[in-house]
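Why do we care about 3D structure at all? Because function follows from shape, and shape follows, mostly, from sequence. That is the central idea of this module. The next example makes it concrete: a single protein chain, its amino acid sequence, and then its structure expressed as tokens.
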Amino acid sequence: MNQILVIDDKPDNLVAINALLNLYISPCEVITAKSGREGLELAMARKPDTILLDIHMPEMDGFEVLTVLKNNPGTAHIPVVILTAMKTTSRHRVRALEQGAEAFLTKPINEAELAAQVKAMLRIKKAEDLMRQEKLMLRDELRDRVRDLEKLNALLVKEVEEHRQTEKNLMESEVRFQKVFNSQLEAIFIVDNKVPGRVIDCNSAACNTFGYEHGELAGEGLGNLFVGSIQHQAFMDMLEPALNENGFLKDVAFSMKRKDGTVFPSEITVFEMRNQQGEKGDRIVSVRDLTERKQLESILQQAQKMESIGTLAGGIAHDFNNILSPLIGFAELLEMDLPKEGPEQENLAEILKAAFRAKELVKQILTFSRQTDRELMQLKLQPILKEVTKLLKASIPKTILIETKIGKECGLVKADPTEIHQIVMNLATNAYHAMEENGGTLVISLEQTRIDGENPELPELPPGRYACLSIKDTGTGIDAAIMKRLFDPYFTTKETGKGTGLGLSVVQGIVQKSHGEIRIDSKVGEGTEVQVFLPVVTKSEDDNGVEKTGPLPCGTEHILFVDDEEAIVRFQTRVLERLGYTVTECTDSRNAFDLFKANPSLFDLLISDMTMPHMTGERLVKECLAVRPDLPVIICTGFSEQVSIQKMESIGIKGFLMKPVDRVEIAWTIRKCLDKNGLDPISPDPPRQE
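And the structure:
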């Protein structure tokens, strides 16, 4: 049974990770530790197969624990996966990896990614343990074999009369050797020393690895299995200088080829048998196929690349939203000041229209790149398809025409909006790559359909109403032989660097988790159509809000407004003053806290940016609420992944605004917090006033 040690000082995290691991990994035994010292004691005593380690812990943090683990011979081989909060910097990541951590994951944890990472660690640990055990067994057996042969040879010279007994012993030894020899998982060759490079014998794994029958390999040159067909003597001459004084050479990388011409990466270990006089004998050559290891490394690199893209998108979004905020704000102020009729108003309307398009584009990029927990909700597919279409039109060449046939009558489905966005984007990108060379037409359509009885093409779907999402292209099409492998894990037909990294096997998994099904129809030269069927929800449980209309709400309260961007502070101050509020503005969060602490009762509301130098918005809020717990607070941010609404509510924040903020959003949010004293649920999207 797999043993997994989880070290985290937060009991809730231990319970959640325990449940996740038992759900995704079976069988497994989860061992938990609430501190670094307790975790070290359990690691030394239990020798688990994988360790999940939090960085931020009192008394002894994760880096200290990692150092002790990797410096102890008894635990150095155990894979360690670092789990840490979003605020952790790249410096922490580099430090953890340099100290020996095998992987690094950021909280909140993606369940599927954590399960896949742990499974990968378990496979690597199991493979390393097995290889270590097999090497020891092979070495011992080979040394026993050499000693037996040397003893038998000495007996043959000295005692001819014992010839029959010696022959019997040799036969028994051969049987034992063949059993051990053929039970090894690695390909093993016995290479002749008298005729350099000639294969004397090979085990079953060698035949399976290279695709030959035993008789096709025995007697042939081992060099023929290498890319470029190294000559017998050249191969041995190449190995000779690399052998150590004991005639041993470990883990040398080579590219080798199978009988069908397939090239694969490998590692070779050579052991030269020698007699008691030190005379050289035959060589044992073991070949380890590294194909699966390389695939796992590629998958891990791709996962890390996608995580980096998400982090980069967040940083860009924060800076870009800070640029958009004053652009929209000052444009809205001009809109209020200029005459209602005239070309100036038309020009401002176009400026605002472009600015809001930029705002939506940033939101789409964040939606595509972020990595969050799976959140199922009842939603309409039409807005997501329109967002993806806008993003595609901005990113693919004009040689590809995009057509949409989105049915308004299609009902709600229950799914994760981020996953739906990623699925549509991935399938559309696949279609684009199929038409990249010659151009074509990409058709995105949505309609509601009904499946009655057993459908031979969709046997897994029960009768009922379904939303049918179709991505159709006029590209090169897919060969029938490849069609059978489209949903295989790790399978791809794309060149390195192409695609989004979301394979069709993952797409299929997401669709099936939403109780849907995916169907692909393709012909070479005629294009491909991918259909995704998702069950339609009969009743919406989420649509219970009431849209507010009418003039903007005003007030006379005193607001402390804090943001390190001077332009944002200037335009928001003007907007709030026009709504009737008294505003004290600050561009330094430390000065803002000093002002508040000097007279806490002076202010009726605090509005603060999240990301600021010296003192973050979260810290400012905590310090202010410690002085005055009943203070209403609104947080603004340019990057939604930095804010967890549940976390903000837990520390007393009553409102949340996503930059760039227009006057309608801030007006409604302020009144909601002041009038209700924050008792209503936080709504990140107050209604816009047209």
